[in-house]
Amino acid sequence: MVVESTPNWYSLVDGLGEAEFEVKLAHTMGLFMIIGAKVKTDRRDAFSLARLLRLGAIPEAYIYPKDQRPIRDLLRRRNRLVFLRAAVYGDLRRTLLRYGLSSYSRDEIKGLSEAEIVHHFEHPIVRSSGQLQLERIGLYSR
User: Fold this and answer.
1) In Å, what is the CA distance from 74 to each residue of 63, 92, 119, 138?
2) Is residue 135 scored above 90 in pLDDT?
3) What is the extent of the structural domain holding 86?
4) Which of 39, 76, 110, 117 could form a Cys-Cys staple with 130, CB 3.0–4.6 A?
5) What is the distance in angstroms between the CA of the first residue and the CA of the last residue of the chain?
6) What is the DSSP letter of 27?
7) Residues 6+ apart with CB under 8 A from 33
8) Are residues 18 and 59 located together in one domain of the fold?
């Protein structure tokens, strides 16, 4: 039996495994046959998956053991937060550049305080935007 990687694949794979089915988790990025289809429906996807399974051509993803899934999920969330924080640093750097403050390196921007942001931006909206960016960075860094 093959299961496409969806948000609820944990429960599907666990339930099928408990019922003693041999389960394969299809790697989403490898399913070019489905991804490339012009018309995409659950019925057509199921047919394509069944055909790939019969041919032994399912691109398999690793099925994490139950006890390792929370760690995997935590690492994925942390990775996402690091990505978001980096994006906000980039936004702050572009805001500084936009207002003629190009003297800050990437590392120096990471050390800016709220007082320095308030000092650099005269307009209250731009100042508020800079403060919000620092707040977001603080939240993502916790």
Assistant:
1) 16, 27, 38, 19
2) yes
3) 69-141
4) 117
5) 42
6) P
7) 48, 52
8) yes
What Cα–Cα distance (Å) separates residue 38 from each residue in 33, 35, 41, 44, 59? 10, 8, 10, 11, 20
Whether residue 76 sits in one domain with residue 51: no
Torsion sign over Cα 108, 113, 114, 117: negative
Q: What pLDDT is recorded for position 16? A: 95
Task: Say if residue 92 is in the same domain as residue 128.
Answer: yes
Q: Mention every residue, 6+ apart, whose C-beta is less than 8 A from residue 30.
A: 59
> Model pTM?
0.73
Helices (H) and strands (E) in the chain — how many of each? 7, 3
Distance CA(29)–CA(69), nearest Å, equals: 20
Same domain, yes or no: 50 and 82: no
